[in-house]
Amino acid sequence: MTAGRNESVLIVGAGCFGISTAYHLLQRGFTNVTVLDRSEQLPAPDAASTDLNKIVRTSYSDIFYAQLARDAIQEWKKTDEWGDTYRESGVLVLGPQGGHPYASKAYENDVALRARTVRFDSAKDRDGSAALRAVFPDDVETGSSFEGAAAYLNLDSGWASAARGVEVLMARVTALGGKVVRGKGVAGLLRDPEEGGRTSGVILADGSSIVARLVVIASGSWTASTFRDLDHLVEKCISTGQTTATIQLTQEEAARYRNVPVVLDFRTGFYVFPPTDDNIIKVGCHDSGVAHHPPENGTYRPVSTPRTVSSHGDDGLRVPRSSIRSLRSSLRGVYPELAEKPFAATRLCWYTESPDSDWMIGFYPSDPGLFVATAGSGHAYKFLPVIGLIVSDALEGRLDPAIARKFAVDRKPSTLDRFDLSRGFLKPGNLGNEPLCTPEDLLPGIGKNDGGA
Ligand SMILES: Cc1cc2nc3c(=O)[nH]c(=O)nc-3n(C[C@H](O)[C@H](O)[C@H](O)COP(=O)(O)OP(=O)(O)OC[C@H]3O[C@@H](n4cnc5c(N)ncnc54)[C@H](O)[C@@H]3O)c2cc1C
Ligand SMILES: *[C@@H]1O[C@H](CO)[C@@H](O)[C@H](O)[C@H]1NC(C)=O
Description:
alpha/beta, binds 2-acetamido-2-deoxy-beta-D-glucopyranose
C-alpha cells in the first residue's frame, strides 16, 4: 500500500505528528495536503505538543531513537529555520549506583554515536561527587538526589520551546501550500462501499464530511476515544495523564539557574528544566500516569479519554494531589531552594501510550485509505523536525522493512504487560480515584515529610 503524490491527503491533528507529516509530504512534492484540528486555537492549548518546553535528548537505550534524535538535533540547530526554539543546555541523566538498565545502555549509545558526554563514574567517591556538583553554578544549591547517583551529562542535548516549534513548522506548512484548518473536529471515517469499505474521508462533529484519498490519523491522546471502532487503536493507544507543574522565579533567581542542564532522573522519572525566557521552571515525572474513564453510555467498551482545559475548563488543569506532592519532594532532592516556592500552575498533559513505547506509524490493516501516525508514548516531541520523514517514507512504501515492522499498527508486542525500560512496568492509576489538588496543595511545605518519589 502506498499513496501517490497527487492524491489528496487529509491529516487529522495538528500536533507533532500531524504537522511534521504535512511538512515532509509537501517537501517531497505532495500537492494536496490538508491538516484538520478540532481546536479553534492552534497550536491546540491541550495538545501534548503544546507546552513550555520538552526535553530533547539522544539518551535512549534503543539506538534507533538515539540516532534519530541526533538527526533531529542537527535540524533543531538550524537557527535560520527554528530561531532559538532549541536550547542546548545539556541533559544530566541520573541513575542508581551500579547502573540502570536504561541509562547504562543510553550512555553506551551516546558514546557510540559520538555525542559529547561526561560521565561521573562514582558519584560516591569524593572526586566523582565534586565533579558532578561542578556541573551546577556555585550559587545553585543542589540536594540529596545527587548523593550516590551514577550520572552522565550529554552536552549535545537540551530542550525545545515546544509550542513555538509547532508554530514554526505550521507556518512552513502553510508557506508550502498546505492547508491547516482549525475548529474541525473529526467524529468518524467515511467509507466507500464500492471500494470494499476503504476509508474515503472523514465525518466531522457537525455531521458534514470531507473526502480524501488518504486519511492520516494523528490525533494523539484523543485517538482511541475518537475512533472507537478501530480495534488496533482502542487496544494500543492508551491515554494517560501526566502531571507537570511550573514555578515562577524572580529575575535574580532565574539568572542563577540560567545555565543548569535539564536534569532527568531515571530512578524516579523526575525531570526539571532550566528557566524559560519568562523565568519559569517546569517539573514533571516520566512515569505511568493516570487513566481517565468518563461515564460511558454503554455502547462502547470504556477507553481512557483526556481530561483537559478544553473539556473541563480550569478544572481540567488540576492534577492528582499525590503527584503534586511527589513532584515537590523530588524537586527538593534536586534544587532544595525551589521546593520552598509555590507552584504557579499545574497541568495534566496526555501521553498516547503504545504497549511497547514504540510509535504507531503505518497503514491500518486492510485499508489502503487509512494511515496512522501516533502513539508518541511520552517521547516523540523532540523528533518534530524529522518524524514526518518516517511517516512519509512509510506512506510511500519506502521505509526499511524492519523499521516498518517496529511501528506497524498490527504488530504484536512481545508481552501483554506494558513494559518500558525507561519506566519499568506501566500501571496507570485511575484519575477518578485520585483527590485533585487544591490551591493549598500548590504551596510550599506540603509534601515536606514525604519520602522520595
Ligand atoms: C507531560 C508531557 C511531557 C512530555 N515530555 C516530553 C519530552 O520531554 N520530550 C519529548 O520528546 N516528548 C515529550 N512528551 C511527548 C510528546 O509531547 C508527544 O509524544 C507528542 O507531542 C505527541 O504528538 P501528537 O501529534 O501525537 O499529539 P498532540 O500534540 O496532542 O496533537 C494531537 C492533535 O490532534 C487534535 N485532535 C485530537 N482529536 C481530534 C479530532 N477528533 N479531530 C481533529 N483534531 C483532533 C488535537 O487538538 C491536537 O492538536 C511529553 C508529553 C507529555 C504529555
Ligand atoms: C484536493 O483533494 C480534494 C479531495 O479529493 C479535492 O476536492 C480538491 O479539489 C483537491 N484540490 C486540488 C487543488 O487538487
